Amino acid sequence: VVGGSLSLTRNLGPFGQAQQQAIKVAETQINAFGGVLGRRVQFEIRDDGTDTAKSRAVAEELIALGVPIAIGTTGSPQAPDVAPLFQAAKIATISPSASTPVMRTAQPARDRYFFRTAASHGLQAKALALKAVNGIAGAPGSTRLGVVYADDGYGKPIAEGVRAQAQALGAEIVAERGVPTQVKADYAPEVNDVFAARPTCLLVVTFPDVGIGVLREAKKAGRTPAAPAGLQYIGSNGLRNAAGFLVAGRRDPADPTSPTIGEGMVILNFDLNPGTPEYAAFKNIFTSHYPLKPDQPDLVGYTANAYDAAVLAALAIEQAKTTADPVAIRDALYLVSRGGTAFGPDRVSEAISAIKRGADIDYNGASGPVDFDDFGDVLADFVLERVQDGAFTKIDTITVKDLPAD
User: Fold this and answer.
1) Which of 70, 131, 190, 299 is deepest in the core (most CB within 10 A)?
2) What pLDDT does 137 receive?
3) pLDDT at residue 82 tops 80
């Protein structure tokens, strides 16, 4: 039994539900070819409700269950509170989407138990600052940035990273305001404070429910102080949710033709559905179990990352040759994720067979190479999308090599 703590309900529910489906696909695929260590693998996924207290309770349940490794959490705000519990129990966890930068140094290099198949938001902060300052798709950049961010483990570290990178690029953060993660009825104090500083670009670093409230206040007609003329709006990856942001942000959510509050703004997101053979192979496998809906152009973000986390957990158990030594399984994560003969999502059974023969393998994931560095991190590229006619339209890409060095 492999544990799992995912956000199946509340704010991150659309992501967590897709992640659960991806893990189920991995479970079915692995078991169809004999399982792990000659036994069936079962992923015990529990709902953490996108809530920190409930996430801790789920973690304690899984630790008491004696799982040798676990998947989760979905959310960045939950990771700093949950990871120490698994660390104390010496059980590795692989998050498919908790990208908060604070987790990179929260545990020692190598002797750590928190891993993730999604890149750190430290990279996203660099990308947000780079595009805000240098301009997007031919549009002029800005040297006066305003930031409204969720005052939690997701938004605050990104805002701090944006500030540092913007200053390094010669720009100024003229105002930044944190907002609670719980939705408020009125965002006028925060928005007015930011607009009083006359920024030429507003960065919104929140999840959809809060972001919609901030944008509605920012775009409200007749308000004082008014939004500066020509203000550029840029959103973080937390807003990249069609149902939670585009649909819920419509003037009339029931009317598909109703204008959405994010119209015209640019959203930066990790390249979660990369155009690689490995992603194409995974998508074919996944959609044979869960076909795309007619209005769904691609898989929900972080679906591939969850599949990779599940496969890596299984491969690490096979590599360690035990379910009774979670430290050995932790160490095996490094061995199966980098170096050796490459195997992709369509060759998982071959990877397990190769491990049994004593071969050195390198799992190349659906979401990317997923080569864990000594801090349990991976690298990823970014895409920029504009909200246009109520949909996300890709306008640019940013590769890791485009980002400023530390």
Assistant:
1) 70
2) 79
3) yes
User: According to the 3-state scheme, what is the secondary structure of the chain?
Assistant: CEEEEECCCHHHHHHHHHHHHHHHHHHHHHHHCCCECCECCCEEEEECCCCHHHHHHHHHHHHHHCCCEEEECCCCCCHHHHHHHHHHCCCEEEECCCCCHHHCCCCCCCCCCEEECCCCHHHHHHHHHHHHHHCCCCCCCCCEEEEEEECCCCHHHHHHHHHHHHHHCCCEEEEEEEECCCCCCCCHHHHHHHHHCCCCEEEEECCHHHHHHHHHHHCCCCCCCCCCCCCEEEECHHHCCHHHHHHCCECCCCCCCCCECCCCCEEEEECCCCCCHHHHHHHHHHHHHCCCCCCCCCCCCCHHHHHHHHHHHHHHHHHHCCCCCHHHHHHHHHHHHCCCEEECHHHHHHHHHHHHCCCCEEECCCCCCCCCCCCCCCCCCEEEEEEECCEEEEEEEECHHHCCCC
Residues 141 and 130: their CA atoms lie apart, in Å, by: 9
What's the pLDDT at 320? 98
Flag whether pLDDT at 305 surpasses 90.
Answer: yes
User: How many C-beta atoms surround the C-beta of residue 319 within 10 A?
Assistant: 23
**Structure tokens, 222:** 């007749």
Yes or no: say if 14 and 91 are a contact pair by the CB < 8 Å rule.
no
Please report the pLDDT score of residue 406 as a whole number.
Answer: 67
